[in-house]
Write a structure and sequence with these properties.
heterodimer; A: about 400 residues; alpha+beta; five-stranded antiparallel sheet; about 30% strand; B: about 200 residues; mainly alpha; 9 helices; elongated
């Protein structure tokens, strides 16, 4: 099969998956026009579909019921950046270029056309904000108070970062690959959002520079025209509006690499200062699951109720999801269903047969192939990263 | 008790009880402080913080005093135009209103806010004011430029040079006072004279 044919086939499968997932969503509750046309700005409708945490620059999370769809539609995918998107002219195909410099053989520039002519790679991967679930840390920590929906699962199409680096010719001494996007702070005294990943992750065959999201050109809010996707890693590495790649011996300098997006290597007392602690960058995701249906506050009838959700981990597959109806004293296994792809999330189902009316709290937890089990609560850290405590939904059962 | 003594006492109280146990009486004290400071503090938040981010980012935080201090210091270091006195006021207000024991939903800061004293000048009489373009340039740079761009040629906010809104001074003034769309209301921050000065400056651009 030639590449074009395989791409078009994969688009059809993708549409199938979206529609298949949406069938479930529609059955669960009203969702308006999830497959609306691509919008390159923040439409009113789009903002309505998301839970806006910060209006400007826009930070908004996805309502969990949207995760009944295996792929999270572009229009309801969570939105996060430090400065908001650059002006669309700055990232238009005519004006945009990707520059690769530093420890490479001369500096190189790529247009979007250049990249599209390279071998295309398609990867379905969870992208999750490092601060997803920050609101659940106690004591509370500063930052956007994300709850459950700063995460999504999408199909990303792009080129391998290592193919781009190979064209540029990486020189000896290279250890880190730095990224910078076209987004800029409102005032110039605010540090730019510059980050780096170790060379090992950069040249991993699954690390890509994506120009499509769910088969459509990357929307402006999600990093048009090109963003980094580091499957299995938190989204602080998934730089949007990418314009500059610098190959270098050291980690990126500046606030967003040297200070922010770091966690202590040793557990610290909740609420304590992290000064004097060794802090390392947030990289791999941790094992986590969510209950997608029923939703918190729902009423269900006595008798069988389908509990469903999603589960994912970093670089290991999810092997088990369990449900507890007694605050975690006993757990029963859920059934893993649907697609099973590395880096993507796994859907799960559990038939709950409640015989009595009352109020019940459903908990879920996942286990990955590295035997990491989702904990009741996550280790506290001063910036509230990597929350993966048991997910919790309270419902009323009526006769 | 003097204002500064009171604030020292409060910081002690907040420091001692930490995040967990704030009694009802202490809660009342904090509420009194935050109500008293609200008009000026909320105006400052619009003028100095909302340049880069909407106020909802602040409103959702529940932090102990030391973390509010660190936050205000970080923002000042990053270029927020906050004087020492303003920083002190903000730290006192934020740690009294958005402390770890505060409820998730807080009542609006102060319904009297719209009547607050402007930060810069006394409000003028109701009659038409004559703007001074040279003064308007500085007021624009300090308050408007971050969104509307240097020289008012546009940025995150729209271009204002030769904008149709300049044909109607009254709607220009109304927009600034009450806000519009993403733009916050500047009524509590800019006086009528300030607005007239900005208008005069924009007309000669």
């Amino acid at each position: 099969m030639n590449e074009e044919a395989s791409r078009s086939l994969s688009r059809r499968t993708l549409l199938g998956k979206l529609v298949q997932g949406l069938g479930v969503t529609v059955a669960l509750g009203p969702v308006t026009q999830p497959l609306q046309a691509e919008d390159r700005s923040v439409s009113k409708k789009e903002a309505d579909r998301l839970i806006v945490r910060v209006a400007r620059p826009l930070d908004a999370e996805t309502p969990v019921q949207e995760f009944a769809s295996y792929l999270t539609p572009n229009s309801s995918f969570f939105v996060r950046s430090h400065f908001g998107p650059p002006p669309s002219e700055a990232v238009s195909e005519a004006n945009w270029k990707l520059r690769v410099s530093g420890l490479v053989e001369g500096s190189h520039e790529f247009t979007l056309k250049d990249l599209r002519q390279m071998e295309a790679v398609i990867i379905t991967a969870v992208v999750q904000c490092s601060g997803n679930g920050r609101a659940f840390h106690r004591p509370k920590v500063p930052g956007v108070q994300w709850e459950r929906g700063a995460v999504g699962n999408a199909q990303w199409t792009g080129v391998r970062l290592r193919d781009v680096l190979a064209k540029a010719g990486v020189q000896a001494g290279a250890r880190h690959v730095q990224f910078q996007g076209a987004d800029r702070p409102v005032v110039a005294s605010v540090p730019m959002f510059v980050r780096s990943i170790p060379l090992g992750k950069a040249i991993h065959s699954d690390t890509i520079l994506a120009y499509e999201m769910n088969g459509r050109p990357l929307p402006l809010l999600h990093g048009a025209p090109l963003r980094v996707i580091t499957p299995g890693w938190m989204a602080d590495s998934c730089i949007k509006w990418l314009t500059d790649i610098t190959v270098q011996p050291d980690e990126a300098k500046g606030f967003y690499m040297q200070t922010a997006y770091r966690i202590p290597t040793k557990p610290i007392e909740p609420g304590a200062s992290a000064s004097g602690q060794t802090m390392i960058p947030v990289e791999s995701m941790v094992v986590k699951s969510l209950i997608v249906a029923p939703t918190d506050g729902d009423s269900v009838k006595v008798g069988p109720t389908m509990i469903q959700g999603v589960a994912w981990s970093g670089e290991a597959r999810v092997v088990k999801v369990e449900v507890s109806m007694d605050e975690g004293k006993t757990w029963e296994p859920a059934r893993l269903v649907g697609e099973d792809q590395p880096y993507a999330w796994r859907q799960w189902q559990f038939i709950w047969k409640e015989k009595t009316a009352g109020t019940f709290t459903i908990l879920c937890r996942a286990t990955d192939a590295h035997r990491e089990v989702q904990p009741a609560t996550s280790p506290w850290n001063p910036s509230g990263f990597l929350w993966n405590g048991w997910d919790r939904v309270t419902v009323t059962v009526t006769t | 008790m003097t204002g500064s003594r009171r604030s020292i006492m409060l910081s002690l109280i907040i420091g001692l009880v930490g995040f967990a146990a704030i009694t009802a009486a202490q809660e009342d004290d904090l509420a009194t402080v935050s109500t008293a400071l609200a008009p000026r503090a909320e105006a400052l938040i619009i003028a100095r913080c909302a340049v880069c981010h909407s106020q909802d980012l602040i409103v959702q935080q529940r932090l102990p005093r030391e973390r509010w201090i660190a936050t205000v210091e970080k923002m000042t270091h990053w270029g927020a135009e906050i004087s020492n006195g303003e920083a002190d006021l903000l730290m006192r207000y934020l740690s009294a209103r958005y402390h770890p024991g505060a409820p998730d939903q807080l009542p609006p800061p102060d319904s009297e806010l719209r009547k607050a004293e402007p930060l810069t000048q006394k409000p003028g009489a109701d009659g038409p004011l004559t703007g001074v373009a040279t003064r308007g340039a500085g007021i624009f740079e300090h308050n408007c430029q971050a969104c509307h761009g240097a020289g008012a040629v546009g940025g995150m906010g729209p271009k204002l040079v030769k904008s149709p809104i300049l044909k109607h001074e009254e709607s220009f003034r109304e927009t600034i006072v009450h806000g519009r769309g993403a733009m916050p209301a500047w009524g509590p921050v800019l006086s009528r004279q300030d607005i007239a000065d900005i208008y005069a400056w924009l007309l000669v651009r």
